[in-house]
Amino acid sequence: TEMAAAEERFDLKLEREEKELLNRAAAASGMSLSAFMRSAAKARADEVLQRETRIQLSQRDFDAFVDAMDRPFAPNDALRDAMESAARDVRRRA
């Protein structure tokens, strides 16, 4: 896979064994070490962000969520009191 020209620089210190491993993997992939590192780092970053930004629910939890979203909103007493208090404060300041 060809990558766009780099605009930013990132320095990384590696153990000799790590660099040798990465060099072998890059060569096996037909890529330069730089291109391989960029590709591998981006793939891993995408994987982590997908895992950390997606919500997974069981079917039971999904059904409960959809059911809750389908019900009309009804504020509880504490929320109703807070909204009334905020409205009074706004009227006083106006």
Précis, in short:
The chain is mostly helical.
What does this structure look like?
With about 90 residues, this protein is an all-alpha fold. The protein has one domain (about 15-94). About 70% of the residues lie in helices and about 0% in strands. The chain contains four helices and no strands. It is elongated. The protein starts with 15 loop residues before the first helix and ends with a helix. The mean pLDDT is about 95. InterPro entries: Ribbon_hlx_hlx, TacA_1-like.
The tally of strands reads 0
- Count of individual helical segments: 4
How much beta, percentage-wise? under 5%
Mean pLDDT, to the nearest integer, reads 93
How would you sum up the major sheet? none
Work out the oligomeric state of the chains in this entry: single chain
Using only CA atoms, what is the Rg?
27 Å
Report helical residue fraction: 55-70%
Secondary-structure-derived class: mainly alpha
Low-confidence stretches: none
| Terminal residue distance | 62 Å
Overall shape: elongated
Helix and strand pattern = HHHH
What is the total domain count? 1
Keywords: Toxin-antitoxin system
InterPro entries: Ribbon_hlx_hlx, TacA_1-like
Pfam families: TacA1 (PF08681)
Protein name: DUF1778 domain-containing protein
